Amino acid sequence: MTVPDRPIPNPAAVRDDGEDGWTLLVNPDTAGAMAVNATGVLVWSLVDGKRTVAEILAAVKDRFPNARTQ
Q1: CB 23 within 8 A of CB 30
Q2: FRET label pair with 31: which of 9, 11, 14, 51, CA 20 to 30 Å apart?
């Protein structure tokens, strides 16, 4: 899978923030779903078509200094 330099979110995706700290991302076109934690929510919010992958990675590292990046 090739990641574009400036990824964009899937416009069909629906976000449902749970009370337990997890967020559910659902694609109604495919019925696919993914539960993400706070790191995943941060990444999802940064994927906007304007930021590069390197900028997104830097923002994640700023927020979660101990996060693995590879």
Answers
A1: no
A2: 51
Across 30-52, b (16+ Cβ under 10 Å) vs e yields: eeeeeeeeeeebbbbebbeeebe
Whats the size of the chain, residue-wise? 70
Give the pLDDT of the chain (70 residues) as one tens digit per residue.
Answer: 687 899 999 999 999 998 888 999 999 999 999 999 988 999 999 999 999 999 999 999 999 888 676 6
